[in-house]
Every structure is written in structure tokens, then in C-alpha cells.
Amino acid sequence: MGVAEATNRRLRTFTLNFRASLAKTGGLTQFDGALKRRSLLAQGMEQPLKLMKASSKGRGRSIEVSDITLVLGGQAWHLECSLDGPAAWFQPQPTRNEFHVSVYSMGERLTYTVGFGALVSVTMEIKPESRVGDVNGVFAITMFFVVAGEVQVVSIVPLKSDQSACVMLANLAALKDPLLRAASTGSGTLPIEVQVPLAWSSAVLSSEASGAPVDSPSGINSLSCAWARTTLTDALVRMPGVHRLISYHEGKPLGDLGDLTAGCGSKDTALSFALARPKASAKRIRKTKKGTAQGKKKKRKEAEREDVRQVNAWMEEEDDRFINENSDKALSWLEEKWLGLSVHDHGDKDYDPLSGEVTSFLWRGDVEPPQWVSQIQDEEGAVTDYSVLELPEMVKEAQHPDDVLVHFDQPEDTCIGYVLEQVREGSGACSDDDRCRIDCCYKLKIPVN
After folding, report:
1. Could you list the pLDDT tens digit for every one of the 449 residues in the chain?
2. Cβ–Cβ under 8 Å, residues 415 and 316
3. Do 115 and 174 contact (CB within 8 A), yes or no?
4. CA distance 385 to 91
């Protein structure tokens, strides 16, 4: 005690350093001031370029969301997810140029789509009620679409993996320009990506005051029972990215909302937010092929294998040849080999792990070189596109039923390794009539006896 008292008497002055500009008792420090802008996630809200990576593949993945706000034709809906209530997922589909919103409630699953071509502006911002201790669900991303002059708004709050979700969205080709230009702070004329959200929010506030709708009702007449109707001002409150634009550009001149929307977005009403048409599942696809020659051939092969499906988990010669060939023969080969197989992707720092099933193949003529891509459907029904070149490793990493036998290693006697071994031994020729060996010899210009 004597030592403690002597020590305390010597402490005349002390300094307290606070790492945030706002501290509140009774809870965790809220996001504010300097601390709010320390993390990459927070900095990416105002400077999306920090989230963009040159090495990104621009691949979309499913995001489970906790909150969705939707505005269609002057009417607003809100969907709040919970453990004992509805669940929802948001997934960009770059190969189809559309976003998917899937809602599961009361045993019913509905999927809505909206086209990339109608996207005009994107804003991201941390919610004001978020705290530093919160690691998930702290930001909202708001997307403005214009279809035939009508403003449609979709605002989501991810349930988890906030930073990886932000990075994924910021690296989608369709979102880069709308996101960067909406974050513009130039002193000249405001870009359309800034004017549309500001003009729309101004119209919302003035229309609520006068009791008039912003636009004539259109779009979806009714949504599932999981959606709750709300007011436009309540919907605007749930869009913190728009609040940031309002506070930053307050007092700057804006164009008329009708004039702005007439020259942006798309006039194609097919891109509007709407229910998606159900697609045939992989099982349905396989059933439709039973009467075809391919189906009969597959049936004979399965009988020969005693009902065990055998898969070579490597890129065979046909895979290499057909991956870049847009033909029915190429599609038949890929479906025959890969369709219906379980796959697993361990993910990385930018993408979450994914487990699912190969459900279909899609021809991509807009990439270089043009090629087939596989479409993987996960347990929630979300579809993600993967290169066919990635399938072998993903098949090896997955768990398969007893009636599927996966061969991991490529046998040397059925590949070019066999011919190379023959050359090392000095024979220099191949006498077997096996087709693969003959092809290998031809490629290496080795005479075939």
C-alpha cells in the first residue's frame, strides 16, 4: 500500500487519447469522424476505386441479405429478414446481364430479376446506427435503374461478409462506372449518376408533402406476402448512400427528373424488376434427353458401368477441343461428362466458399477467347458461373454419392505421357491402335506403326 500511495502522489498529470471523435457510454463507440474512415470498408464507401482490383475476375456470387427496400412506379416495399421469418439472397449474374433477388417465405421461393442495361447509379454507405463492434450488416448498397423513363430503386443490406461483398460488387463490370461516377466530387456539372438520385429524392420529399405520387403506378402489381408496403420517405431513410449525396451536393443545380430519366437507362421494359420465369432443373434437362440418340448412348454406357457413373477429373482432349467450339456436339460432350456433378470451391479472400451442382452450360461469345462456361447452383438456388477449366479441381474437392466414381489421376497409357515415355525408352513409335495414343503421336510427329 505504501508503494502504491507514493506512486500515486507522484502522478501529477496524465493524458487520455481517444481514437474516435464521438464516444458514448452505455454501448460501443459508433462509427463517426476519424474512426469511421480508418477501415478499407469505410473508405470504399466514398472512394470505390480502393475496392477495385485489376486481378479480379468480375465474377458474381450470392449474398444473403438482412434487409431489402424496393421502389417501383411511385410505390415502395420493404422486406426484413429474420430467423423465424423470410430469407432473401441477392446475386449478380454477369453472364446473363441481370441481378437476381430470391425470397423464401412460408414455403414459397420467388426469384425476381432486373437488367444490367437499365442500371444508372450505385451508392454505398455505412448505416448511421452501425457501431465499430459490428462486423456484419453495417452498410447498404442502393441501385437506381431507369426503365422507359421510370425510376426503380433496389437497396440491400448484406447479412454478413460485408467487405468481401463490397469488393465483389465494386469489381463487377456493370457496376464500376455507375459506382465511380456517383462518388464524383467535381465542382463542374454533376454527372447523371449523381443527378438522378438527387432529383428522385427531391421529388419524393416534395410529393410526400403534397400527397401526390412521384410517378404513375406501374411495374409489379403485387409482390409476395413477405413484402410490406411502406412510404417513399421511409424507403429513402433506408438509403444512407443517397443521404451522403444530398449532404455533399446540397444547393447545387439539378435537372428535372423527367428530363433526366428520358435520356438514361433503357427503354426496354423487359429489363424492369419482375418475377423470373422458372427454369428447368438439371434433372429435368436429363429427362428430356432420354429419347435422343445421346440419351440412349448414355443409357448403354451406364448399363455397362453397372449403374456407376465414372468421371475423369481432368481436362481430356475433347474438353480442350470443345470448350471453345459453339456447337451442339461440344455442348453434348460437356453435359455428358460434367452435368449433375457435385463441386466445391474453397474460395479466397474475395469470394466465399461455394458448394453446389453443375446444372447447365452457357456460351460466352463476349469474352476472349469465346468459350463455354459452367453454371453452378448452390443449396439456396443461386447460380454462379465458372470456367470449364476450373471444374476438374472443383469436382475433386466435392463429396460424391456412391454411384459416382471420380478418377483423380490421368493414366499415362491414355495420354501424351505414354508417348513421351516411349521416346525416352528409344522406341520412337507407337503400335497400339488406341485413338488417344494415335492422336498423341500425331501431335508430336512420331510415326505410328
Report:
1. 555 555 555 555 444 444 433 333 333 334 444 344 457 777 777 788 888 888 787 888 888 899 999 998 888 999 998 888 888 989 888 878 889 998 888 777 888 999 999 999 999 888 877 765 665 667 899 999 999 999 999 999 998 877 888 888 888 888 999 999 988 876 678 899 999 999 999 999 887 655 555 544 444 545 667 788 899 999 999 999 999 899 888 888 888 999 999 989 999 988 999 887 654 444 434 444 444 555 545 555 544 545 678 888 888 888 888 888 899 888 888 988 998 898 988 877 667 788 889 988 989 888 788 889 898 888 777 788 888 888 988 888 888 887 788 887 765 544 444 444 554 455 444 444 444 444 444 444 444 43
2. no
3. no
4. 11
The β-bridge partners of 105 are: 108
What is the domain range of residue 374? 282-407
Environment class of residue 278 by beta-carbon count within 10 Å: exposed (0-12), middle (13-18) or buried (19+)?
exposed
Burial of 190 (0-12, 13-18, 19+ CB in 10 A): buried
DSSP-derived secondary structure for 97-123: TEEEEEEEETTEEEEEEEEGGGEEEEE
Please check whether residue 2 lies inside any domain of the structure.
no
Q: Torsion-angle region of residue 15: left (phi > 0), alpha (psi -120 to 50) or beta?
A: beta
- Give the whole-angstrom CA distance, residue 141 versus residue 121: 11
**Alpha-carbon distances, residue 441 vs 318, 411, 415, 418, 425 (angstroms):** 16, 16, 10, 10, 15
> Kindly report the CA angle at 248 between 232 and 213, in degrees rounded to 5?
20
Query: Residue 13 falls within a domain, yes or no?
Result: no
C-beta contacts of 347-351 below 8 A and 24+ residues apart: 349/164, 350/53, 350/56, 350/164, 350/167, 350/168, 350/171, 351/59, 351/61, 351/164, 351/168
H-helix or E-strand spanning residue 292: none
Residues 106, 198, single domain; the answer is yes
Domain count, the chain: 3
Q: What is the three-class DSSP state of 207?
A: helix
Q: Is residue 8, in this structure, part of any structural domain at all?
A: no
Residue 344 contacts residue 353 (beta carbons within 8 Å) = yes
- CA 439, 445, 446, 449 torsion-angle sign: positive
Closest CA to 154 of 76, 45, 219, 82: 76
Residues 102 and 192 both lie in one domain = yes
Q: Which single residue is written with the C-alpha cell 463441386?
A: 343
Grid coordinates given for 303? 448399363
Cell of 88: 432473401
DSSP-derived 3-state class of residue 67: strand
Q: Which of 275, 303, 326 is the last residue of a domain?
A: 275
